[in-house]
Amino acid sequence: MIYLDHAATSPTLQCAKVAFNAVSATIWGNPNSIHSFGQDARKTLESSREVVAQCLGCEPDQVFFVPSATEACRIALAIMVEKCRFVTASLVEHLAVTSITDYMVPIIRTGNKLRGAAHICTNNETGKIYDLGKDFLGYDVKFSDCTAAIGKQKINFRSSGIDFICGSGHKIGAPVGIGVLIAKTPADITERFHFGTPSVPLAAAFASALEFRTKEIDLFAGVTEFLHDRLIDGIMNEIPDAQLNGCPCFGHRMEQSPYITNVSFPGIENHALVLRLAADGLMVSSGAACSSGNNEPSRVLLASGYSEERARSAIRFSFDYKLDFDANDMGNNYGLNLERDARIIDEAVKIVAQNVREMKKISSTRDKSDFPVES
Question: Parallel, antiparallel, or unpaired for β 86-89 and 115-118?
C-alpha cells in the first residue's frame, strides 16, 4: 500500500508515541489541581508549551493547546468578530474557516475602526505558500491557519505581526485530538474562554512531534522536495495532457510547499479516480479530507483561477519526508531512505497512469456508444 495523503493525516511518529506513552504512564493528575499530582501534570504541560514556543518563535504563555485546529479557528475568529468592525477571509481558506466566515453577520460598532482578516498560510489543496505580509496589508487584527505549514516551514510568530495562528497535531505525526492556537495577546483567550481539562499526554506528543520536525526542517523539506518533483515529472511524462495546479518545488521554494501537489487529469472525474487508485493500493484525495464527500468542484481551485472542468478532475497528492510506514523516525537517519522512497513514487506514477488511461478508454467507448452509426 502506498500512502500519499499526508495532508489529510500523517502516521503517528515514534517519538510522539514514546512521549504520549511515557506521560500517560507517569503523569495522570489534573493540571488544574493544586495538589502535587496536579502540579506535576502542570509542570509537564508547561514544558510542552515551552517546546512549542521555541519551535514557533513565540512565548510559552501565548501557546494554547486545543482539541483541533478547527477549534482554534473558531476561537480566533470569535475574538476577531468581537474586536473588529468587520472581518474578511480569503477565498482559499479551509472549511474550518469558511464554515464560520461564510455565515458571519456584519456587526457595525460605532467608533470601532479595527479591520480583521483571515488568510491561510499554505494552501492545504495546492501547497501554494502565500505572502502574508502582502495579503494582510491594511488590516489591524490578523489570523492565519498554519495547519499545512507548522512543522514543515520555518515560522517565527514573534516577528510575523500576526495576532493568531493555529495548527494540528495529526498533520505532523502527533495523535488525533490535539491542536494549538498561538495568540499575540494571551488575555484575548483567557478572558473570553474557559477550556476543558487539557490532555497532558497529547500535549507532550504534539510537542515531541513538532520539535522533531523543527530540528531537521531543512533536511526533511529537501528530501520531500525531491519526492514531490519526481512524482510531477513522472506523471507529466506518462500523461502528457495532465495539468499541474501549482508549480514544482525546484526554483519555487518560497512559493510551493514540497508536502503537497495537485494535478488535474482532463476528462477524468476525480472521485472515481480516487476510488480506483485506492483499489489498486494508492491512497490520495480529491481535495481537503473534510470535503471529500462533496461532489462540488473545489472552491479553492476555482478561487485560484482554475476552470470548473479542471477542478472536477483534480487529485491531491501529499507527502512526508519518508513514505514507508515501517521506517522508524527514532532509528538510523530518522528513517530516511531516498532510494526506497523514489521506488515508491515511481510505483505510484505507474498506478496513476494505468488508471487514467483505462478511464479515458472507457470514456471514449461510452462516447462512441452514445452516437451509434446508422446502417
Answer: parallel
